[in-house]
Amino acid sequence: FLLGGKTEDIADLLTLRNLIYYSLSDIPDKIERDKSLKLAESLFVILRRERGRTNYLSAFLCSTSTFLAGIIPIIAFLTIPAPLGAIISLAIVAAVVLFFLVRYRSQKTKIHWKITLIETAAIITVAVLASLLIGKTF
Question: What distance, in Å, lies between the first and last C-alpha atoms of the chain?
Fold first, then answer.
């Protein structure tokens, strides 16, 4: 979780830095341009510190929520009687996957959530069918 967040942040910061440097290169006065570049560097130091704190908090929250999303359906399956336990645990998994995964993917790709929901359902269906086929052959 931490590595993914840092990778995205580094890419964003590099893009932002290139845009700022390109904009500052248009300043004709060398002294003013150097002042602006030093100010931009100070800004990036502050941004890196803040992003680091945010990445640690985000990684902690993601790992905790992933653990809970996995353990809650297992507990429901083990504690609730046979047919109802399986149904409730599958419903919990479906709700978590569809809500969080679809929301995350739709925000990152900037595609409407309904389209992302259909894509996610198709991906999950294909993965389940493939695992069932592989399980039957071995």
Answer: 33
| Together in a domain, 68 and 119 | no
Q: Which residues contact 34 (CB under 8 A, 6 or more apart)?
A: none
User: Does residue 75 sit in the same domain as residue 114?
Assistant: no
Q: Which two tokens stand for residue 115?
A: 């389209």
Q: Where in the sequence is the domain holding 67, given as residue range(s)?
A: 1-79
Residues 36 and 92 in one domain: no
Burial class of 100 by CB neighbour count within 10 A (0 to 12, 13 to 18, 19+): middle
Q: pTM of this prediction? A: 0.45
Q: What is the pLDDT of residue 30?
A: 86
Arithmetic mean of pLDDT, 89-115: 80
Q: Does 92 lie in the same domain as 26?
A: no
Give the torsion sign (CA, 62, 64, 65, 70). positive
97, 120 contact by CB (below 8 A): yes
Q: In whole angstroms, how far apart are CA 39 and each of 14, 18, 30, 50, 53?
A: 16, 14, 14, 17, 22
